[in-house]
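Z., the sequence and structure:
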Amino acid sequence: MCTLEFADHQPLYRWYIEQLGIFPSQQIEFDRLNLTYTLLSKRKLLQLVTEKRVNGWDDPRMPTLTGIRRRGFTPEAIRAFCTQIGASRTNGTTDVEMLEHFQRDDLNRRARRAMAVLHPLKLVIDNYPVDQEEFVEVANNPEDPSAGTRQVPFSRELYIEQDDFREVPPPKYYRLSPGKEVRLRNAYFVTAQSVEKDAAGNVTEVHCTYDPASRGGNSPDGRKVKSTMHWVSAAHAISAEIRLYDKLFSKPDPYDFPEGGDIFDNLNPNSLEILTEAKLEPSLDSAKAGDRFQFERVGYFCVDPDSTDGKLVFNRTLALKDTWAKIEKKAAN
């Protein structure tokens, strides 16, 4: 069994069998796997490594088994993808988002949930008792009731994502802004009241009030809010390094470059972003290399082997958005 470029060898192959009088084995050709935004040529991959354009064969951006394992891909997702695309004799290119779709589907069912704030902004609840702290119950995986629940600490000072607050909100912005009420996941309703800024005018703290009757994330009077935000207790948060990996090439076809150019001209300059100030809920402190999680509202992440005691490193496997699922749904309709 071999790929289609060896079909031209068939006459010579059969001639040798006839001349040598050996067992007439059959040669079967099939198309090679090609993925968008991905390079599968071993010669070119070797060049990426030797020229240090990536950090070795197990770099999470590399389409090697060691690379995608380190990024957090599962064997089950890869097998499901291979079963779906099958084998044929027609050369073509498969959208990498199809592979990502199978990976999201697998991790959605098996990955434990956690709350992590990648770009922290301090949120202070002014009417919450200064010395009080409590625990809220959160499901480990809503898709798997057998995964149980965990207790997450809640306190007066929290971290939220910077993008979850706008002092001057744009149209249809439903997250936190002055005078607007939102839900803190599994906790309380809060309403932004005021902000503190640094000398450059950047918002450093948001002050809000909370509704004690809304514990658990629901209001007894039945009022609704349009946004639910994740958070981490500032007093209990652990710090971690987050490596945000993206596609290695900026074009669907890496070989699409102008005359005189090179395939490496299409390398994505933003294929890796490293965040060093992320804040995570304390349950992640015991995570081990290879453990996979869904950071709620953020994406799927895997603990990197570079992690050490006191310094966790997480690799982003995938963001939550699933373009391929939308493509499938549109095709079905």
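The domain at 39-115+250-333 is CATH 1.10.1160.10 (Glutamyl-tRNA Synthetase; domain 2). The CA atoms of residues 57 and 67 lie 6 Å apart.

Let me know what you think.
H.
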